[in-house]
Amino acid sequence: MGDHSHGSPENSGTVAKADDVAQDRFPDPGLPPHRPRLADRDPRAAKRHERQVALLFTISIIGTLFFFVAYFVLGHLGEMTFAELRVQNAALGLGTAFAMLGIGVGIVHWAKTLMPDHELMEMRHEIRSEEDRQDAVEIIDTVLEESGIKRRPLIRNTLIGAIALAPIPAIFMFRDLDRTGNTAHQMIDSLRHTMWDKGIRLTRDPSGTPIKASDVQIGSAFHVIPEGLNETEHPLNEKAKAVVLLMRMDPAEMQISEGRETWNVDGIVAYSKICTHVGCPIALYEQHTHHLLCPCHQSTFDLTQECKVIFGPAGHALPQLPITVDSEGYLVAQSDFHEPVGPSYWERG
Asked: Residues in domain Rieske (predicted)?
């Protein structure tokens, strides 16, 4: 047995060490031999690959232009049906996909078929100010020369066009998120006013059948739209703001704040269906807990507390629609909502 008194790997014998002779037996294998590609040997193949790369960059340009057509032309044809909206969304997605895919695949194909593929190894040197700057300039010049971008104008021009156009769709999309200046005030005004007004009947969605107070039982829930919505010029736009949930509960369980005593009809209440987080439609009502749940991010609203947020990211209670009954017993609105509907990150006056 060896001496293990020190317990170190060097002395314990538990670690095998290579001596100088063993190191000589396994020399550095070096770099593998370079195998020339077809484009390296055949100028016609190189020219063919060059056209392929340019074609991919051109596909990127076409994808961006296709996005513009879908965004500006299809998006300004007036009121669109659900089928037309799906077509536009598919066109936007395809345009973006081809714009990004064309650039990515084109650059990869360029690198694998035309750019130099010689393996090399460079030692790291200490940084020296002026000399290092000169070395950096030389490296950049070498990269440009080896990439062939100077002597391949077809690739260069299509690449410049693809890169110049690709970010523009994102700019227009982010521009639509602008919430400053007149845009914000116009948005708030549009969300503050819906089709609801004094005397407008509550009707079932989507049939438009008026609802009587006697039709609403405790525990039931109705998806409701204003009467006449389906006959408007832009029903989808109006529905996106005006759709509500109608429910009935025991009046003894309701916590009614001052000024809202007459907003319900014997426990029948109506609240905006649009979640105040990011605007998802609320569709789930738990009768036993009196909770409304948003399926997108699990925001939960308590119907007994005037749809106060009790869980989730929503930062504002659901707006309540004041309702009453007309002479025929049908449920009607007393007025429009008293506050803007929709996500609470939009400014509220």
From this structure: 262-332
**Residue-wise DSSP of 280-295:** PBP-EEETTTTEEE-T
For residue 166, the tally of other CB atoms under 10 A from its CB is: 19
* 47-106 confidence digits (pLDDT tens): 999 999 999 999 999 999 998 888 888 766 556 666 777 888 888 889 989 999 999 999
Whole-angstrom Cα distance, residue 53 to residue 103? 9
pTM of the model: 0.54
Tell me which of 2.102.10.10, 2.60.40.3080, 3.90.1150.200, 3.60.130.10 is the CATH number of domain 189-333. Answer: 2.102.10.10
Nearest to 321 by CA among 306, 302, 343: 306
Instruction: Give Cα 162 distance to the centre of its chain.
Output: 23
- State whether residue 210 is helix, strand or coil: strand
Alpha-carbon span 312 to 302, nearest angstrom: 12
